[in-house]
Every structure is written in structure tokens, then in C-alpha cells.
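Hey all, quick one. A colleague (J.T.) asked me to put the guanosine-5'-monophosphate job into the tracker so the inputs and the C-alpha cells live in one place instead of scattered across chat threads. No bug as far as I know, just bookkeeping. Sequence used:
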Amino acid sequence: MKGRLYVVSGPSGAGKGTICKEFLLLHPEVHFSVSCATRAPRPGEVDGVHYYFITREAFLARRAAGDFLECAEINGDNWYGTPRSIVMEKLDKGQNVLLEIENNGAQQVIRYYPDTVGVFILPPDTHTLIRRLVGRGTEDMERLTRRILKVPSELEAAKGYDALIINDEVDRAVAQLGEVMAGTYVTGKRERDTLSALTRDFADPKVCLELLERYYNEGNK
Ligand code: 5GP
């Protein structure tokens, strides 16, 4: 039997990376797809573990050759993509594969591979999302603003995913991702209400940008 493809996505700051990392520690049988990226490695990041770090030229050549299952240029400066052949090989061998990617790429995968299970990670509330985004300390105000402005369209897309998971407690969110893979998870009222509340807050980006500025200034005092 073929394996199944799981795509975990969500706005930046939702904590999808943490959930996937913890999940994979408990489920080494699931294959995590390491993406190609054109950005520079951050301190501590290892080539072939966190990403395959390649040049823009190499990326675009591989893209033209159809090497990627999906790819996206994120925030207008760096390309990210899922190498197709490794994923297909693992699925053919019957292994489940997990992708942790942003929404545009996730939509491509969901569209082209209808058997894909899409999981959207939600932050518990708007303040937490913005605080987590700023808290990483890896990005300047301009990039943070671009990330915030993308959130409304990401939340809009959330409805098209098979499961919504709230990342308020990592252990619980990880367990719920396990339930998704076991086919026992059902998105409930709490998740739908959280999505509605976030959508309401982000309907006015001005308020969210003010919050961003506040947390950013607090962090840089
Ligand atoms: P970062 O630069 O912080 O590692 O990642 C930026 C964003 O790129 C994150 O939202 C992450 O989920 C997303 N990402 C990582 N790999 C891929 C990929 O292969 N394809 C797409 N579309 N997004 C990716």
C-alpha cells in the first residue's frame, strides 16, 4: 500500500515547525521532507538536515526541470521547494510523508494530489501569533510587516484544509497531529471559533500592525 502525504501549514508564528519537530521525535517512522531553500543558513542550521541550501540559479534550474512537487517564492526574496523524487519514492514504499510548508505551496500540493491530508495550525489568539513572530528575533520590521499582511489570506485558506489544530499546548497539538494520521481527529467548535476570532482581528490589519510595532519595540528596549 502506498503511503500518505500530510501537509502541515499555517501562518508564521503559529508554531508549525515546533509541532512537526516534536511529532517526528515520537514518530520516526514518518518521513519528513527536507526542502530546498535559497536563503542563507541561520546559525546552527545544517545543510541536508534543516534545508538543502542551494543558490537561486540552481533552484530555478531545478524548478524548470520539474524537480519540485511544489515551490513558492516567500516574501518576495527567497525560494522554497519540496524535492519531488524523494517524496514519491517514500510514498511508493508505503511510508507516510510529512511536509511543513507555507500556504501557497500547501495549496499546490492539495490541488494536485487530492489524497493529501492538509493540516492547518492555528495560534490560540492574535496576541500570541504576533508575539511569537517578533520573539524569534530573526527578522526586521519590514519582513515582519510582510508576514502580518499575509495572514488574512492564509486564514481564509484555512477552511480548505482537512483539519485545524490549535497550538496552545505543544504536547496536545502534537497528539492531535497523531490523531490526524490515525484518522481519528475531528476539528471541533473550539478550533472553528479560534479561526473566526483570528479572522475578525485580522480584518483590520491596522490593529495588527500596531500590535506588531508594540511587541517589536518592547523586544528591542
Ligand atoms: P524559514 O525561512 O523561517 O525557515 O521558513 C519560512 C517559511 O517557509 C515557513 O513558513 C516554512 O513553513 C516555509 N517552507 C519551508 N520549506 C518549504 C517548502 O519546501 N515549500 C514551501 N512552499 N514553503 C516552505
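Adding what we noticed when we looked at it: The beta strands are 5-9, 31-32, 36-37, 52-53, 68-74, 78-83, 97-100, 117-122, 163-166. The first strand starts at residue 5 and ends at 9.
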